[in-house]
Structures are given as structure tokens and as C-alpha cells.
Protein: Tryptophan synthase beta chain
Organism: Thermomonospora cellulosilytica
Amino acid sequence: MADDPGRTKILLDESRIPRRWYNVLADLPAPPPPPLHPGTREPVGPDDLAPLFPMDFIEQEVSAERYLEIPEEVREVYRLWQPTPLIRARRLERALGTPARIYFKYEGVSPVGSHKPNTAVPQAFYNARQGVRRLTTETGAGQWGSALAFACSVYGLECEVWMVRASYDQKPYRRLMMRTYGARVHASPSPVTTAGAKILADDPDSPGSLGIAISEAVEVAGGADDTRYALGSVLNHVLTHQTVIGEEALEQLASVGETPDLIVGCTGGGSNFAGLSFPFLREKLAGRMSPVIRAVEPAACPSFTRGRYAYDFGDAAGFTPLLKMHTLGHDFVPDPIHAGGLRYHGMAPLLSHMYELGLFEAVAKPQRECFEAGVLFARTEGIVPAPEPTHALAGAIEEARRCAETGEPKVILTALCGHGHFDMAAYDRYLSGEMEDFDLPQERIERSLGRLP
Amino acid sequence: MADDPGRTKILLDESRIPRRWYNVLADLPAPPPPPLHPGTREPVGPDDLAPLFPMDFIEQEVSAERYLEIPEEVREVYRLWQPTPLIRARRLERALGTPARIYFKYEGVSPVGSHKPNTAVPQAFYNARQGVRRLTTETGAGQWGSALAFACSVYGLECEVWMVRASYDQKPYRRLMMRTYGARVHASPSPVTTAGAKILADDPDSPGSLGIAISEAVEVAGGADDTRYALGSVLNHVLTHQTVIGEEALEQLASVGETPDLIVGCTGGGSNFAGLSFPFLREKLAGRMSPVIRAVEPAACPSFTRGRYAYDFGDAAGFTPLLKMHTLGHDFVPDPIHAGGLRYHGMAPLLSHMYELGLFEAVAKPQRECFEAGVLFARTEGIVPAPEPTHALAGAIEEARRCAETGEPKVILTALCGHGHFDMAAYDRYLSGEMEDFDLPQERIERSLGRLP
């Protein structure tokens, strides 16, 4: 090992935390189709969204500005963990015998162990500034819920979280973490909302889904003046907040003279992938580099690769505006894979639009291949990845193995968006040979797509 | 918040990872009393230790050199997480209304989420270089066991861990993490060793203790030529390896022009406290600064404050040499507090000697006060601390509150030696009002002290 004296971990001082979020909307050849009101099928206006979101986000959602200023009060909290390290996976490269150079941007150093606080903090800040008293939200694996609970504790907001039942049962520690930050957590579907009660009446054993949990959180926020709703992915402003990841990675790679040949991230709602790739896409569109950009989604919830690009609801119950996106149908309930954060029926409308424009590729991977990648990564790089980024790692490893055959010394950049310290039960299942790869028959997708609005 | 523009997180580039460990033995006015052979009561020689440890450590254990070179191969692995950040706890300061400035050295960014890899990596490296095939060890909360499992996976060694049953049951995720790194984990007391079987015969429901687990790991290492034993605390060389923490903190504080008035850490076996404080003690002995140095131990296992300074076994069964240390008696079984890593009957002999020399203070704290500190810290600084460093935080907060009364703007340095992502069940008990403070009657201590060898 001592024969390889180059840098392993590329850090930036806190003065290098980006001062602006990058808004990719400004650089697209065409804007994405607007959200529609489900009744009138007319584009929704700011007034339709005001009961749910503060005006800052409604403006950010449609802004044509290339850069949005990050408030000093937000950067002050970002300093706790940002800039996050960019790490070269030298031991993984050696284990693969690849000439590729693999870099991963590691978000697990944040207080909650994932990239989610990048948007939770500004969301809590803007809401607190507007006088909101309580935020509601949904969470899958619990990464988003923990992040919002943390951010609310910083700004003195109440936080109420609907957590997908499959994860609520599998991952009690994330739930307890939210509680430690002072949040209230419900298993979703829950009896405390009309939407939840209705689903429980049909199926008392429902494992839940992100779509259902969103319905519940939106219902409660819509019914109280002092309460707003916060979303951890999917919407433009959320993706924009995450661009700090890519901006930092861009500076970090440049500092060691590297230009990426491949950028590969995991997609559920799409926020981590967007955060990593948008700043590089800006450079690509400007002709300054030409990386291939690739999304990896779970085979059990393949919205890009097997969904339809169509208007659909963002939630299961049909409370949200209609969003044009790659969808498996708003009432599609994915099998209970361990990557709970990727179990969403749709894809961020902005990413869906960009995918249609051909700005990046997408592949789907079954969870066993992903956990195999996760274990190899843990045993070489030491960090046990969350199930979500094992999809990104599986994509990076696939490419690095290809390079081992072709001899190409490609530079691969990926995002390790969280550690798996809350996900050890999933690793146990994998190591015990008990992890299943779910079969997803085409009829099942067609059935839910047949119920598109 | 924006009115406080100073630095929050002080990072160092990986080129600043220390090149040498600091050996405090070189600067003490008198050497600590030597370990004794339990039969002859003569000082043990290198040959007595060779079946358990590689010669590098036997030499480091008694070295009079002030600095020990860190092998390049070890620094190469350290780069994954070192230098760790030093963070100013501005939000905690504000919550306490204190003029004190609180800095914490955060080791939770390591792959396993604690400071333990600082010694696990060199231990695995030296053993691997000497041709050892397998390492055995004990673990309390699982932090040390995870660290050694990680280090063994890096150097291709087998790893076998005896985990204190109380933690094995309370913290399945740490056990699964060790398994993910490829280690084999036993609940201790276990039926696979003579020492464990004997204790199980007397008490089938024994919650175990670090002393018992050490007996088991030592027994297995002593019985196989290709196997050595690794210890996560207590011994001189382990404490020395941890001095990277203090060396980095010294440089980080200096870079912002600060000199500590108080250094406060938690003590179980003593490695984190030693690692943080020794380099500052060097500066103090040289007259370059004059911080108060304070150890905080759990009231349920108070070796400094209520133990006896005497020769005792390091393990429960009496397999180890006799060590002169502050001890509660080698068969003292502490109540099952959640800070499993602090449930050790003795204290590092080096620290015990230094305590007798008056080089630092010690206080004991009950676990509810510590968890109260942990929750306040989580809700202000965002990081949920492991139960062990909540003791250090409780000590720091106590001093900061005192400063709020006196108006003294003291600089307080503490060590957050690990995150609590594996310890959420303990927080749940605390928040539910179900956490107990154990009563430790003097007779119970006297009883086990009556059985000193």
C-alpha cells in the first residue's frame, strides 16, 4: 500500500461550503411540464401550493435563476458536517484489480448519517422564518425523517413524521433517533389520518409505501394553519438544495487534477443523484467535460426503466397535484426491499424530464447484487453503506470490473449517501443467505398504470 | 447565529495525520509499577507476554522513547477518517447561556463510528506482519470489536470476538456489523471456553463483564500458535496509539488561537481519555499551558473514585499478569449500564499511576445525568452521542454551567469518542423515564476487593 502515496481523502475547509445552490432549470433546453391541478388539469399556481409550502420554496420551485443564494443561517448549520469528504476507494480498486480510479462522496459524516440534512436544514429554516410552528413529513427508511427531526430541533419547530410501516418495524433505531431529536413518529398507514384509516380498513397488514405516508403528512399539514409539509425528495427545490454535494465534489476532484468519466448514483425520488450530478451536468452542457451520467434504481421499484412517463399523483391517495414523471402508478406498493428510501412509485419530475431529454442513463439492479457490493465495500473501505447507496456502488463496481477487462483507467465518481449503521439487520439477512430478489411481473406494473388519473 | 462568524469545524488535511505516537512514559517523574507474574510475583518479562502479543507491542509497552514512529502502512489506513474534526459546540453554548467555549473532538466519523480503529489498525498491521493468522478479543458495547473486525478485514486476518452478553443482547446491530466485516462473535460468558463454561455453570444468566470476556479471548489466544490476543484499552501501547486524537486537537486548537482551560474525557479502561489528554499533559509538564485535566467515570463502575490502587488481575478468571491499578476487584460485575464500554473493573495501570501522581482529577456520574447531557447535545449539535462519551459531555456541561454563573470564558475541550447510532434503545429508555440509576453499596465493592490476589 505504501507504494501508492497519492491522496486518499480530499477535504475542504468550511469556508469552501458553497454559497449558492445550482438550479439546473436555468440550463435546460426546455422547461419540464408543469404540475397540474387534478380537478381542472390546469397548471397549479403559487396559491394552490401555499397551504403546504412556504413562499420561498414555491419561488425556488420555478425559478429561472441559475444560482440561488444559501442563507448564512443555513451555512452556519451546514458547517457541522460540510464540506463532506471525497474519498478515493484505493482498497476497493485493488480488490477489483481495476485500473479505474473510484472516488466516493461520503455523506455519512452528517449528524444523522446521510445527505438528507442538506435540504432539511433550509426547509426548517425558511419555515421557521415564516412563523410556521410544525412540520409534517413522510419517511421511508427513516433517513429523511431523522434529518428533518434534527433540523426542526435546531430551529425550535415541532416535527411529526409518518414512517412507512415496513421500515418502522425493520428499523426501530431510526424511529428512536427521531424521538431523541424530539419528533413524533407514526407508523404509516396510521389510524390518525383519513387516508391512513382508509387503507388500513382495506388491508390491516399493509406494509405501507412512501406514497401512502405522503398522503398522511399532506393531509395533516393541509388541515392546520400553523403547519406545513416538508418533502425529502422529488420536488425541484429539494434537488436544488442537494447540489452542494456535486459542487463540492467538483472542486475536490479538480484539486487533484481529475475529471470524471462516469458519474453513478442511486435513485429513489432522485435527490442524491441530482445533487451529485447536476453541477457536473452543467459543466458537460458547457463543454468543459463529458462524463457519462448513470442512475441506478432498484429492480423492485424501477420507475425509470419500466415505468411510464405520464401525469400521476405524487402520493397514494391523490392529494397532491399531478406531476409528469416516470411512474409505476401512484398506488403501486413496491415489495419490501431493504432500501426503504428507494421504494417510491415515481421519480422526480425534473429528473424524468431530463431523462427524456437524454441527459443521463438509467439501469435497475436487484438487491442481492447491491448487498454483495455493499459487503465488498465494507470489507475493503471499512464503511458499511446504507442499502440505498449500495445501488450506486453496484453500478460503480460493474464499471470498474469492465475497466479491468478493457484496461481503461476511467475515473468513476459515485455518492455514498449514507452509512448503514441502522441497517445491520438487512446485512444479517444477506450474509445468512436469506435475502430475496423479488420478481416484478409486467402485469403488476400494468395493473397500477391502468389506474393513472 | 449569523452574528457569530468564527470557525465551527476545524479540519486538517490528511497530510497532517501525526507521524508519531506520543509515549507519555518518557515524561513521567517515575515509571509505573511493573506487571507481576501471578505465581512468582516477579515482574513479567517479554517471554511471558510473547504468546499473547507480537514483539512490537511488548517493546512499545515499556519503551522509554518519547515518540514512536507510525508505520506508513498504518497512516495509509488512518487516512480514511483521520484527522477527525474538532468542532466548536456553538449551539450547545447558546443553550447553556455560558461564556465558555466548548470544543469537541469527534471520532464518530471513523468507519465504525468511534475512536477504536486508531489502535485496532496498528494492532492488526503488526500482527499480520508477524505472520499471525487470527486475533481474538473481547468487546463491551461492541465498539472495540467492530474496530478490530474492520482492521482484520483490511489486513486479511481472522477475527474472533467475545462480546459481553448484556451488550450482545442489547445491541444486536454492533454484532451484525462485526459479522459484516467477516468476524465471528460469541456472547460472553460462552460455553466454548473453560473460563466461560465455569461462569455459566455458576450463573447461567450472567450478564457478563469485560473481565470475563477478556478471560475467554486470552484463553483461546494462549492455546493456539497462530493466534494472538488484542486489547482495546488498558495497556500502555493501546493508550499510546490513541494519542493521535490529542496531537490533532492540539494543532487544531492552536490554529484558532485557543488554549484549553479544562480537558474532560470519559474513562472505562481509559484509552480515549489518555489519547485526548496525554499530548496536552506533555505541554503542561513543559510549562507551555496549564489546563485542568478531568476524567469522568460511571457511578456504577467507579474505579478511580471508589476503587483501590492495588495489584489485581486484568480479567475475571485470573489469566493475565497482575496489574497495579485502581480496581473494584477482578470479579466485580458492574450493573448493566448502557455505557457498556465503561463497564470494566479496573483502570489502565498507566493512568492509575498518573492519577496517584496527581496529574489529573476524576469524578463519577450516574447514567441519567449523562443521558440528559446526551439528549441536550443531540438537540443542539445534532450528533447523538454514544453512552460512553455522554459522561464526558456531562462533565463539560457541568463546567460550562459553572462558567455561566461565574462569567469565566473558559475554553473546554472534550472528546466525543463515538456516535450513538447503535445505542438508540438506551435513549428510548431514557426518554420513556425507564432508565435507572444503580445504587452501588460500599459493601459490594469491599466484597470483591476482599478477593484481590
Notes: Chain A touches chain B through 53 residues (CB under 8 Å). Residues 207 and 325 of chain A are 24 Å apart (CA to CA).
